[in-house]
Write a structure and sequence with these properties.
By secondary structure, this protein is α/β, with parallel strands linked by helices. It has one domain: 4-Layer Sandwich (Metallo-beta-lactamase, Chain A). Helices cover about 20% and strands about 30% of the residues. It has six helices and 14 strands. The strands form three sheets. Strands 1-2-3-4-5-6 form a six-stranded mixed sheet, covered by helices on one side. The N and C termini lie far apart (about 40 Å).
Length: about 210
């Protein structure tokens, strides 16, 4: 499997291209902005996208969805209960920054522990609400890779001051769905550098209780 990150937009969203070199097919995760750049890179790499996967529906993660979806005529996946954010700039926070953003309706609503298969790529859905009402992470167990969106970052966690957010729910999601995974699992977040489950278990101040010490 191959994985490449494109850091896109003014909020520096990590858009992930994840594909199988053998079949030349893969998925696009969180196409946050700069659709021409995303499409151009996919064309350079030469793989065929099979789907767009969204970890959540906040405006900074969905700007390029419409253009990329139309270009490749592929389905859009998002967590069940998150779909309202795509059509509602108030709910997806983009209205708050004076730049309302909408995206097409999803083709598929995914649920906790659902297994998604795109050719040889298999991704297990982990429901991790808290940063948003029904955010999800995507786990590829074969490669030991977890796409965490804005649920978990290197030494930090997602914001919980947005509509539909909950700090308590976010911490519960992380502890029950992410920290139960092996320490070696690599976490690829929606912003910033990658980390591991083990590193966050040991060092993340929001999870160790050391944030205020």
């Amino acid at each position: 499997m191959k994985l490449e990150v494109l850091v896109v937009g003014i909020f520096e969203v990590n858009c992930y291209l994840f594909w199988d070199e053998t079949s030349n097919s893969g998925v696009i995760i969180d196409p946050g902005d700069e659709e021409e750049r995303i499409i151009g890179r996919i064309e350079e790499l030469g793989f065929k996208p099979k789907a767009i996967l969204l970890t959540h529906g906040h405006g900074d993660h969905i700007v390029a969805v419409d253009a990329v979806k139309r270009k490749y005529d592929i389905p859009l996946y998002i967590g069940k209960g998150e779909e309202n954010l795509l059509a509602n700039p108030s709910a997806n926070v983009s209205e708050l920054i004076g730049h309302p953003i909408v995206a097409p309706p999803p083709d598929h609503l995914v649920e906790d522990e659902q297994l998604l298969n795109f050719g040889s790529i298999s991704l297990r859905v982990l429901s991790t609400p808290g940063h948003s009402p029904a955010g999800v992470c995507f786990l590829n167990e074969d490669e030991g890779i977890l796409f965490t969106g804005d649920t978990l970052f290197w030494s930090s966690i997602g914001r919980t001051d947005f509509p539909g957010s909950s700090h308590e729910q976010l911490i519960l999601s992380i502890k029950t769905k992410i920290l139960t995974l092996p320490d070696s699992i690599e976490c690829f977040p929606g912003h910033g550098p990658k980390t591991t489950v083990g590193a966050e278990r040991e060092n993340n101040p929001f999870l160790t209780g050391n944030f205020f010490t």
